[in-house]
Amino acid sequence: MGQQIDMGRIDFKQADFGWVHSHHDLLIEISKVEMAMEHLEARSEQERAALRPKLESRISRLRDELKDLPAHA
Question: Which of 33-54 are b and which e, b meaning 16 or more Cβ less than 10 Å from the residue's Cβ?
């Protein structure tokens, strides 16, 4: 049979879930920037030229932040 885990010993009020929220928030923000990049073609050439570098820079910073988060099992 499976191993039993005593969940009564975990104090969820004291647990640090901050990294989970940070990871989740970064994934959402990356998705938003990716969607914005996918919709650039609907913009004028001038708008695309102005927006693309900003979006690429933003997604690069977000991916770096995600990569730098501490690993948790």
Answer: beebbeeeeeeeeeeeeeeeee
pTM of the model: 0.68
45 is written with which tokens?
A: 């050439």
33/22 Cα distance (integer angstroms): 17
Burial class (CB in 10 A: 0-12, 13-18, 19+), 29: middle
Q: What is the DSSP string of 1-70?
A: -PPP--GGG--TTT---HHHHHHHHHHHHHHHHHHHHHTGGGS-HHHHHHHHHHHHHHHHHHHHHHHHSP
Residue 41's Cβ-side half-sphere holds a number of Cα atoms within 13 Å equal to: 3
- The model's pLDDT over 12-31, given as tens digits with 9 standing for 90+, comes to 455 555 666 788 899 999 99
